[in-house]
Each structure stands twice: as structure tokens, then as C-alpha cells.
Amino acid sequence: GAGVSQSPSNKVTEKGKDVELRCDPISGHTALYWYRQSLGQGLEFLIYFQGNSAPDKSGLPSDRFSAERTGGSVSTLTIQRTQQEDSAVYLCASSFLQGTSPLHFGNGTRLTVT
Amino acid sequence: GENVEQHPSTLSVQEGDSAVIKCTYSDSASNYFPWYKQELGKRPQLIIDIRSNVGEKKDQRIAVTLNKTAKHFSLHITETQPEDSAVYFCAASWDNAGNMLTFGGGTRLMVKP
Predict the structure, then answer these.
(1) Do A103 and B93 make contact, defined as CB atoms within 8 angstroms?
(2) Strand ranges of the sheet holding A5-7, from the earlier edge strand across to the other edge
(3) A20, A52, A111, B32: least surrounded by Cβ within 10 Å?
(4) pLDDT at res. A99
(5) CB distance B103–A95 less than 8 Å?
(6) What is the per-residue pLDDT across A46-78, written as a single tens digit (0 to 9) for each?
(7) Å from B4 to nearest chain A CA?
(8) How far is B63 from chain A (nearest CA, A)?
């Protein structure tokens, strides 16, 4: 079946512009995560959605970052007034039901801020 | 919340040798421990996981051991091959609706032919 889908796969934007990154999780997966991965680095947790509960936003690096998950499915990560240090690969992952189910990652969106 | 430490951050082995990556966790309630492999330029993918009701699990050349008393778990790769070269991430979670997975910092494994 279809895996986690992210779009766009690549995004180049000018400093100061806003960007939106999209994630389509696997159908039926109630948990959705966003991570950021800089070149050669680990997985930096950004935000976690679980069902209808309030999201865990503790990883968002600044108030320029926000995320929504509409209808418990598709999620959008928005970065306002992008900075060069926002350049990274943004990975989305989903899992079934709760934290003890395997995570399935998307291929990521490579964001480059010039 | 949960905190997962992973060591070493880089590991270089000769082809055919074994590789061991270790992780410790802080929350004694954690009972699910997956390992992910991320090849260069690709997404992380689950390679093996273990739950706290067992102490060891094997899948061909890969095995994971768990010591709940000491709160650590390890990934063992035997007879390493160049295609095992990747970044490996451990993670921990516990069985509660809404609880999220916490990742270690990753280990870059390089297998020299």
C-alpha cells in the first residue's frame, strides 16, 4: 500500500519568505511526527500529533514554526520568514495508534533557504 | 520525559567483523525499543524492534538485546558487509495512548571492505 507521502520533495526559497510542507500519513495512522535533519545530523523532533489530542509542540525551535493536522490525516508544517539556518531535510513519520507502533517515514522535503 | 542516549556516535569496522551499538534510556516504564537504519540520502527505516517481555531478538545477522534492570539495549550486527554502512537510530517508548517515540542521537557505521 501507499506509504507516507511528503511534498514537495525539494523546495528552494528566499530568506524571509514563508513555506508550507505537506505530509500525507498512511491511512489509519493516528500518530504523526515532524522531524528536522540537518546534513549529517540526527533527528531533531519538532512536533507530534496523536489523534484528537493537543499536539506536543515542545520541539518547535521558534514561533516562526507551526503545524496543523486537519481531520486527523494530512499535516502541514509552516515556516514563516525563513532563515538560512532553516535549511534542512524535514521528515514526516506516522504510526498506528500510539507510541509503541513502528514509525513509517516519508522521503522528506529538502528545504534550501538562499 | 524519556531521554535516550546512544553510543558511539561513529563506528568503523572491517568487513566481516561485528558491530555493536548501545543505547540507554531514562524512563523505566519504556517497553518498546525499535532500531532504524538510514542510508545516505534516504529515509530511516525500521530494521528490528524489541518489546520488554523478551530479552533478545534475532533476525539473520541482526540482533537486539535488552536489559531492563540496567535500562539499556544494544544492536548487534554480525558478519558486517559494506551495505550495512548507514546511520542507525535507537528509540524508546512505552505503551500508553498518546505517548511518543524518543530517538537517540544516531550512530554512523562505516564498514570498510
Answers:
(1) no
(2) A5-7, A19-24, A75-79, A65-69
(3) A52
(4) 59
(5) no
(6) 999 988 888 999 999 999 999 999 887 999 999
(7) 12
(8) 17
A95: three-class secondary structure by DSSP: strand
Q: Which residues are within 8 A (CB) of B104 and not within 5 positions of it... i.e. 6 or more apart?
A: A42, B4, B5, B6, B23, B89, B90, B91
Asked whether the beta carbons of residue A106 and residue B99 sit closer than 8 angstroms, the reply is: no
Which three cell numbers, joined as nine digits, stand for B30? 519504556
Q: How far is CA B7 from CA B11, B23, B104, B105, B108, in A?
A: 9, 6, 9, 8, 10
C-alpha cell at B97: 495512548
Judge contact between B104 and B47, C-beta under 8 A: no
Interface of B with A in 32-61 (CB under 8 A): 32, 34, 36, 42-46, 49, 51
Which residues between 16 and 35 in chain B have a beta carbon less than 8 angstroms from any beta carbon of chain A?
31-32, 34
Distance from C-alpha of B109 to C-alpha of B37, rounded to nearest angstrom: 10
CB atoms within 10 A of CB B42: 12
Report the pLDDT averaged over residues B51-80: 94
Residues in chain A: 114
The two beta strands, A44-50 and A31-37, are: antiparallel
Alpha carbons A77 and A21: distance in angstroms, whole number: 5
Cα gap A31→B105, rounded to integer Å: 21
Q: How far apart are CA A69 and CA B36, in angstroms?
A: 25
C-alpha cell at position A18 = 514563508
- The rounded distance, in Å, linking the Cα atoms of B95 and B76 is 25
